[in-house]
Design goal:
Length: about 550
């Protein structure tokens, strides 16, 4: 077979046999086989100027997204053979390979790579390979067994190394690893500082988690043995005496059988401190009934979906609203004492939980309609032909049921969903709802589950719908954004239907749906809090 050039990830090209590319595509990616054959078996016409056509017979160009995949597929057989050799390490990440072991075994493995590469249409570029010596191994011991181009540059300088970087991790002596980590930290510091100065907290959190060097710093911290120097902003000494840290530590120690010192807690990972089931149960046991209900609701998956939302379009939150919901997640009070709600004259508690239940102001209706419209749009994307507030769904069966015809039990009506017509009725309740508070303190989603039953039995709605051949399904969420199990099943089915129609990943679409609904639910709650706090301050 002829040779074409596939791109190398770090620049340059590598020759590779077309027949090998096609055979590997047929074996591992049959859906791509015809496309690969059509692309690689003929020259590519490149237009140069208005009238000149250049035929690229050397293969794909730099930046072709299929290049790394096909190159790795060809290389996979060689990687499998190397793992069967008596080496300490033999692995590849795309075109970056590592061979480690006794000198003679590494030499034989290198010779095997060179021999098999030729058969595959590849050529090992020794000038881009590195030789790293471990322990007492000297450079002179390698001159008799390794190619000179691997050990020396064209001007005779040595290429033998003691330190190297493997997949972004520094491996070597103390000076090398320290300088590597320091350089990475210094490069990321300006961006991280700039993120801290952004006014939009939702955007800041997203940038921090996704880019700006944060992920590379976390990778360095996980791959480096220990920190030798701390940023002054994160020093343990100033933190251990901070009033907020002292207060938080005292509250945390109340839930432990034996108190922990500040330096121990600050040096521990959050996961170690917060995922212990015994500690969680003690925390619940010492909390008030209302606090337990809220905590259990906040621990549900839908409640934290807004944290992972991309701050764009329907998942965009106002900065002030985002901060309000972060405070809610942390259990931080919004005021030093209770006050009167300026809209309904009820008690506006220190944590502003009243805002999610207050009937005045119109926020609850706005939240309901926003959730209904969002889910209706998703159902339309799924091809379910949804109808908002469909009239005439219930027909009177007896004279005394004349008023039934005026009712609209479906916020969203689906003519066919999982085998039958369905009336979806949305509602949002507070986890600390008085009618179910005792149970909500013991079982997560008790408030939403209880209200689901209320929806079904109110005015005999479920039975009347069933008599008309329509299944009545309440979709009830708590103000935190956590949905009941039955509602979650419906949301998952809708996202899967959208995935089938759009050829997208169902799990990603499901996450996006939960994020959008979480942002809507929590955003309206936050605006209700901000409105009441602002008006309350005007009256004081």
């Amino acid at each position: 077979a002829g040779l074409v050039a596939l791109p190398k990830l770090r620049g340059g090209v590598r020759p590779i046999a077309v027949g090998e590319v096609v055979s590997q595509a047929v074996a591992h990616f049959p859906g791509l086989a015809r496309w690969v054959s059509w692309t690689y078996r003929r020259p590519t016409a490149l237009q140069f100027g208005a009238a000149t056509t250049v035929h690229s017979a050397g293969g794909v160009q730099q930046g072709d997204p299929l290049g790394p995949l096909l190159f790795s597929a060809v290389l996979q057989s060689l990687a499998t053979e190397l793992r069967a050799l008596p080496l300490d390490l033999a692995f590849f990440y795309l075109d970056d390979g590592v061979l480690a072991g006794d000198v003679q075994e590494v030499v034989r493995a290198l010779q095997h790579v060179q021999r098999r590469a030729t058969e595959l249409g590849l050529q090992l570029n020794l000038s881009k390979c590195e030789v790293v010596g471990a322990g007492l191994l000297s450079e002179s011991a390698l001159t008799r067994v390794l190619p000179q181009s691997l050990l020396y540059t064209s001007d005779g300088s040595s290429r033998f190394q003691r330190n190297f970087e493997l997949l972004g991790a520094a491996i070597g002596d103390e000076d090398f690893t320290a300088s590597h980590c320091l350089a990475r930290a210094q490069a990321a510091a300006p961006l991280l500082e700039a993120i801290g100065g952004l006014e939009d907290s939702q955007v800041s959190l997203r940038l921090l988690r996704s880019c700006a060097g944060h992920a590379r710093l976390v990778h360095s911290m996980r791959s480096y043995k220990a920190c030798c120097e701390l940023d002054a902003s994160y020093g343990l000494a100033p933190l251990s005496g901070d009033p907020y840290v002292v207060q938080a530590l005292a509250a945390f120690n109340d839930f432990l059988p034996q108190p922990l010192a500040a330096d121990v807690v600050l040096a521990s990972k959050q996961k170690m401190l917060t995922t212990a089931e015994a500690s969680w149960q003690r925390h619940l046991a010492t909390s008030s009934l209302t606090a337990r209900a809220v905590l259990r609701s906040e621990a549900e998956p839908g409640a934290r979906a807004f944290l992972a939302a991309v701050p764009s379009g329907p998942t965009r939150m106002e900065s002030a609203a985002f901060i309000v919901e972060l405070r809610q997640r942390f259990g931080a009070p919004d005021a030093a004492s209770d006050t009167w709600c300026p809209l309904c004259q009820g008690v506006l508690d220190t944590h502003s939980l009243h805002a999610s239940t207050c009937a005045a102001g119109g926020e609850r209706t706005q939240r309901h309609h926003a959730l209904r419209d969002a889910l209706c749009n998703w159902a339309a994307r799924a091809g379910l032909q949804p109808e908002r507030e469909r009239p005439g769904l219930l027909l009177p069966q007896r004279p005394e049921e004349a008023r039934v015809a005026a009712r609209r039990p479906a916020d969203i009506y689906l003519p066919s969903f999982q085998g039958s017509p369905v009336a979806l009725d949305l509602a949002v309740v507070a986890p600390q709802r008085q009618e179910s508070l005792a149970q909500a303190g013991q079982v997560a989603l008790a408030a939403a589950s209880s209200y689901t039953h209320t929806k079904e039995t109110h005015l005999d709605t479920a039975r009347l719908c069933s008599a008309q051949g329509v299944r009545f399904r309440p979709l009830v969420a708590e103000a935190t954004g956590a949905w009941t199990r039955d509602a979650s099943t419906v949301l998952l089915a809708v996202s899967k239907a959208v995935a089938v129609r759009t050829n997208q990943e169902a799990s990603l679409l499901h996450a996006q749906l939960l994020q959008e609904l979480s942002v809507i639910s929590r955003g309206h709650r936050a605006r209700a809090v901000l409105r009441r706090r602002a008006e309350a301050s005007e009256h004081t």
